[in-house]
Amino acid sequence: MINLSIFASGSGTNAEKIMEFFEHDPDIEVRSVFCNKPDAYVLERAKKFGVSTEVFEKKELESPFFCKKLDFHQTDFIILAGFLLKIPDHVIRAFPDRIINIHPSLLPKYGGKGMYGHRVHEAVLAAGDTTSGITIHLVNEHYDEGRILSQQTCEVKTEDSPETLAVRIHALEHYWFPRIVNEYVREVSGI
């Protein structure tokens, strides 16, 4: 069994879609959800699927002992699903090419520190782009610069607001993120 640990900071809709996708998979299991906000709704979503949760503070993540928590949950891959803290180098070294993130734009556009959620959609609209989308990528030491696994696009309409664009971006995320995670994990694990 290949075990996934999801890291999330908020509501957790992408995390829920991943838990739902793998709920009855014989080879891949979402073993745990790690969250840095004790009141984040993703923790409730995890309970619904019977997935164990770990709430931690930023200083714990930055400690070299954090990987022991991941080992305890037998983590093989880390999936970042709306996780807003930077992953420390020691975690990246412990999981080389095994940390997957999603970003709500077509990287390298509108990536980097502080670029998440509505900030990204506002930047897309301000630039007058006619296309936006999502990027699913591996995590390295730099924000949003890891190897791209998949990009999916949608139209940006002239009447769009950040909220209306976000609806189409979320639809892409919810459909593609679990499927690309599945494809990549199977490829790397040889299953």
Structure explained in plain terms:
- It is built from seven helices and seven strands; from the N terminus they run βαβαβααβαβαββα.
- With 191 residues, it is of the alpha/beta class.
- The chain has a domain of 132 residues: Formyl transferase, N-terminal domain (Rossmann fold, 3-Layer(aba) Sandwich).
- Strand 2, helix 2 and strand 3 form a beta-alpha-beta unit.
- Helix 6 crosses helix 7.
- The protein is globular and about 50 Å long.
Annotation field: number of helices: 7
Specify the CATH architecture of one domain.
Answer: 3-Layer(aba) Sandwich
H/E element sequence: EHEHEHHEHEHEEH
CATH H level, superfamily name of one domain: Formyl transferase, N-terminal domain
Strand content: 15-25%
Mass-distribution shape: globular
Q: What does the radius of gyration come to?
A: 16 Å
Mean pLDDT: 96
Uncertain regions spanning at least 5 consecutive residues:
none
Helix-and-strand structural type: alpha/beta
Summed up, what is this model?
By secondary structure, this protein is of the alpha/beta class. Helices cover 38% and strands 23% of the residues. α2 links the parallel β2 and β3 (52-55).
How is the secondary structure organized here?
Layout: E1 2-8, H1 13-22, E2 28-35, H2 42-48, E3 52-55, H3 58-62, H4 66-72, E4 77-80, H5 89-94, E5 99-103, H6 118-127, E6 131-138, E7 148-155, H7 162-189
Parallel strand pairs: 1-2, 1-4, 2-3, 4-5
Antiparallel strand pairs: 5-6, 6-7
Helix pairs in contact: 1-7, 6-7
